[in-house]
Amino acid sequence: MVGKNGSESGSGGDQPLDLFLKIGLDERTAKNTVANSKVTANLTAVIHEAAVTDGCDRAVGNLLYTVATKFPANALVHRPTLVKYIVSLKIKTPAQLEAAFSFVAATASDNLNVVDFEAACGVGIEVSLEDIEKAVDEIFKDNKAVIVEQRYRTNVGELFGYVRKKQPWADPKIVKQVIDKKLYELLGERTAADNEKPTKKKKEKPVKTEDKVIIEETAPPKPSEEEINPFSIFPSPEDNFKVHTEIYFSDRPVLRACNSKEILDKHLKVTRGKVFTRFPPEPNGYLHIGHAKAMFVDFGLAKERGGCCYLRFDDTNPEAEKKEYIDHIEEIVGWMGWEPFKITYTSNYFQDLYELAVELIRRGHAYVDHQTPDEIKEYREKKMNSPWRDRPIEESLKLFDDMKRGMIEEGKATLRMKQDMQSDNFNMYDLIAYRIKFTAHPHAGDKWCIYPSYDYAHCIVDSLENVTHSLCTLEFETRRASYYWLLDALGLYQPYVWEYSRLNITNTVMSKRKLNRLVTEKWVDGWDDPRLMTLAGLRRRGVTATSINAFVRGIGITRSDCSMIRLDRLEYHIREELNKTAARTMVVLNPLKVVITNMDASITDLDAKKWPDAPADDASSFYKVPFSKVVYIEQSDFRMKDSKDYYGLAPGKSVLLRYAFPIKCTEVILGADNETILEIRAEYDPLKKSKPKGVLHWVSESSPGVNPLTIEVRLFDKLFISENPAELDDWLGDLNPHSKVVVQDAYAVPSLRNAAIGDGFQFERLGYFVVDKDSSPEKLVFNRTVTLRDSYSKAGK
């Protein structure tokens, strides 16, 4: 043990401040803790559980402080166990502690499997110096070019994250020493240039990624400014006169994107200095969880700054857009808890966009081109100018008017921006601004036969709507040059552009093309199939908007675009929410009949708790469950052969039926094959004198000889077997054949009969479930939202 003076009894009379100083907290942190009564009570209890009232090593004290502030509330029964692992130095790093939190949160109040717990937390694993050096060498080899370029401005936190992936239980202090040594070996002494402050503003530095580890163990972890407020990285609207993007050309001076004082003052007069953002989905499919992150960033920034966020439909492609998608997007944005300032369409600005295209031609920055798509591709790859690039302005103006009036065939002409065909940026190779499509528009009707491209329209509409912060995912970063080139060429107000990483989640696909194929080829049951990561599918599965937003907020608004977020991280937030909101009930999926032989045929109504901490004097916190001589338990809760670590029913063994009585198996009725178990005979203990360890959920006949309420239960699992199916050539071959298992005849307690579509419950010992829209008056259908614990982590997947 690590308590000082070898004492385990402690000084019971110590004041909290004295206790906190003894475990190594600095004076400021200790005083701040005392000021918080809840944390004080938790930390005092943890110190006594650890038997270190006489003090302990500072590193241990900091871990105990973290336990007091972050331990999962649903698993407090396991806190003393975790504390013992800390003081015995079996758990000694923040990474191990975080793993422990995740494990006990998934376990909740169930029995703790010590073997699985120790494996999940890396107990007993010692990472040698050689192991760390090998991991660091590999990382430096893979990232050498970037490190040499950035020198001592290299993001060391990202290097730590890579090491953690390879050696999750390595001592972070040693990792830091090895990385510092390796940096010195590669780069030599720091130069004056290394010590200069970077020109990039501090606010724009990327937030911490999920893989970054806590380096310092000598002080309690403190959340960064970005973790407290993820929107703190964005500048104020009045600061948008500063240069934040430079565009390099092959044949002209550098363009330093910024607003003139006159343009910015005009913008601020319209917006009154408020933040204006936009959420701009294309109405060509259903929104997925990646859009939830975009909503959180766009609507969240506006809300945090007291500003406004448009819901703007980017409807520039009339062939792909449907009213079904528009209606869905409007509805799902509201379900996610966001309220648009206005709902607009890019098509609202078609006339403005056309007039600005004419002006672009007049200024010599656009031309009508007749190359085919294949020719355009070939010329762009070879960095060759179109034969029509230098045609006279008046000629392009006439041809563009002909395009607008429908006098040129579809595919025979486009309007292209005259950008820089020799640029190093592929997205400056004379992008298409307009193309001909003789297709009526769902919103604008048949007025137009030419339609603007995304690259042309979205930056101009941002400017016309006086958007202050144009936020998008990192794949659009290379388009930033085109964005500012066009606004500068037209002399328009320029919003502040910032890109963030896409949300990538394991065991699923997120691209619209792949999602559309899954739906249209009927690999899944529609856009709202509960196995999909569409927001409609997640909602149908029983996931709440609150838990999705909490998950997104926890990830942060990072620019690191190489991370894959594990699905169980989302599931953690789902459980956290449902644990507080889902009423408890009992359902048996695979019933095994148990006849209680020492009970008469009467039916007794017992009280069962809707909530674990239901107060005894609150009748609304209980529901009635009938108890009769015929009950049903799970087939998996009975074995013919008992074992020491088994808590279910077996011949001659007793278990407690939850909220009811202990029963003891007295006889087993087998089928003709002498193996199939048909029925269990048991005796119950009406006085509850026996105290069995095992507790089982169950369902009883509500009337003699009448089966319990029968329901259908759909058990959903991960849609794909691999963590990243999108990278596979045969990604459809990776579909999980067991992603949907239907249990047709599960038994439920009678109180579930009145459940309505969308009602969520915790089926005790089974997981969280929601009533599906396929339910009928004859039979309820339930979807499994999430299990009570993460079986995948334990299986090493």
UniProtKB/TrEMBL annotation:
One of its GO terms (biological process) is glutaminyl-tRNA aminoacylation. Gene3D superfamilies: 1.10.10.2420, Glutaminyl-tRNA synthetase, non-specific RNA binding region part 1, domain 1 (1.10.8.1290), HUPs (3.40.50.620), Ribosomal Protein L25, Chain P (2.40.240.10). CDD domains: GlnRS_core (cd00807). It is an enzyme of class 6 (ligase). Residues 695-772 form the tRNA synthetases class I (E and Q) anti-codon binding domain. It comes from the Eukaryota. GO terms for molecular function: ATP binding; glutamine-tRNA ligase activity. Residues 582-685 form the Glutamyl/glutaminyl-tRNA synthetase class Ib anti-codon binding domain. SUPFAM superfamilies: Nucleotidylyl transferase (SSF52374), Ribosomal protein L25-like (SSF50715). Keywords: Aminoacyl-tRNA synthetase, ATP-binding, Ligase, Nucleotide-binding, Protein biosynthesis. Belongs to the class-I aminoacyl-tRNA synthetase family. This is glutamine--tRNA ligase. It comes from Sesamum alatum.
